[in-house]
Amino acid sequence: MLRPDTLHRYEPPSFAKNFFDEGAMPTHRLRLANLPTPVHRVIGGAQDGILARLKELNIKLYIKRDDATGGAELGGNKVRKLEMLMCDAIAKRCDSVVTIGGEQSNHCRATAAASRMMNLSPHLILRTRRADAIERNDEGMGYTGNVLFDRMVGSTIYTCTPGEYGRLGSNTLVGSVCDHLESNGFNPNAIPVGGSNALGTWGYISAVEELMHQLETIQSDDSDFNFGHVVFATGSGGTAAGIALGLSLAHGADAHPAAEGKEAPTCHGIGVCDSPDYFYTTIASIADAMGLKKMSHSSTEDFIRSIIKVHHGKGRGYAVSSDEELRFISQFAVDTGICLDPVYSGKALYHFMTKVLEEEPEKYRGQKILFWHTGGALGTYEKGNDLLKSTSSSGSKVKRIDCFGKSDSGDTVVCKQET
Ligand SMILES: Cc1ncc(COP(=O)(O)O)c(C=O)c1O
Question: Carries keyword Mitochondrion (predicted)?
Answer without folding.
Answer: no
